[in-house]
């Protein structure tokens, strides 16, 4: 099984929304309110607009296993207000909307996407990969611990969102494949030339 990441295009928006709906139903069936409107998650229409902006900015990636889509992740330098301090943001990339297709659960696709975020952090000279996790989803917290992340803190009560469990991992704790790093650097350079 080979997992590779490619930059997502606007044509992937339907796939990403389907992954979100699939995972929300799975979580709900297990008693979690993660991503549900009742749990103060983004309605799918707002989620789609938010992901659409990230697609336009080149911040969203699709994980493919043997050529087929298996997950998605968005990586940028922004976070919801009040989660991370300005100095924490200046030295980190932030992970958003990481979703693994249920058909690939348990195959380390999520770990591979987090490693990809680490590579992006390395290429942008950022010392940390940071993310916020649904505060009440302790199974998700355990997952991030197994992926090498540490709980930095639970954001204070002034933070309004339902994802206040803040996790981080130092970029230098990953051992990156040099060929994969070179490929991402080439993609990033090509993207910058298109924007210029």
Describe the structure.
It is a single chain. The chain has 196 residues and is an alpha+beta fold. The protein has six helices and seven strands. The chain has a seven-stranded mixed β-sheet with strand order 1-2-3-4-5-7-6. Helix 1 crosses helix 2. It is globular, with a radius of gyration of 16 Å. It starts with a strand and ends with a helix.
Offer a concise description of the structure.
With 196 residues, the protein is of the alpha+beta class. It has helices spanning 13-29, 44-56, 86-90, 109-123, 138-146, 178-195; strands at 3-7, 60-65, 68-76, 92-100, 128-133, 150-154, 165-170.
How do the helices and strands follow one another from N- to C-terminus? EHHEEHEHEHEEH
The share of residues in helices is 25-40%
Question: Whole-number average pLDDT?
Answer: 92
- In terms of quaternary structure, what is this? single chain
Predict the CATH topology. Aminopeptidase
**Spans of at least 5 consecutive residues with low confidence:** none
Main sheet strand line-up: 1-2-3-4-5-7-6
Number of domains in the coordinates?
1
Helical segment count: 6
User: Would you report the number of β strands?
Assistant: 7
Backbone shape: globular
Approximately how much beta-strand content do the residues carry?
Answer: 15-25%
Tell me about the biggest sheet? 7 strands, mixed
CATH architecture: 3-Layer(aba) Sandwich
Report, as a whole number of angstroms, the end-to-end distance: 37 Å
Q: CATH superfamily, please?
A: Gcn5-related N-acetyltransferase (GNAT)
């Amino acid at each position: 099984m080979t997992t590779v990441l490619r930059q997502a295009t606007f044509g992937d928006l339907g796939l990403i929304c389907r992954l979100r709906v699939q995972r929300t139903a799975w979580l709900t069936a297990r008693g979690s309110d993660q991503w549900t409107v009742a749990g103060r998650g983004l309605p799918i229409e707002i989620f789609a607009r938010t992901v659409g902006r990230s697609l336009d900015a080149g911040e969203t990636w699709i994980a493919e296993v043997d050529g087929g889509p298996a997950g998605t992740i968005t990586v940028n330098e922004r976070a919801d207000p009040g989660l991370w301090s300005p100095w924490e943001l200046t030295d980190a990339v932030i992970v958003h909307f990481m979703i693994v297709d249920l058909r690939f659960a348990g195959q380390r696709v999520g770990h591979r996407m987090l490693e990809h975020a680490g590579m992006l952090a390395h290429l942008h000279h950022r010392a940390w990969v940071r993310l916020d996790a649904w505060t009440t989803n302790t199974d998700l917290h355990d997952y991030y611990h197994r992926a090498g992340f540490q709980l930095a803190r639970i954001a204070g009560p002034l933070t309004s969102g339902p994802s206040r469990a803040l996790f981080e991992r130092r970029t230098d704790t990953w051992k990156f494949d040099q060929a994969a790093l070179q490929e991402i650097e080439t993609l990033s350079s090509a993207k910058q030339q298109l924007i210029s």
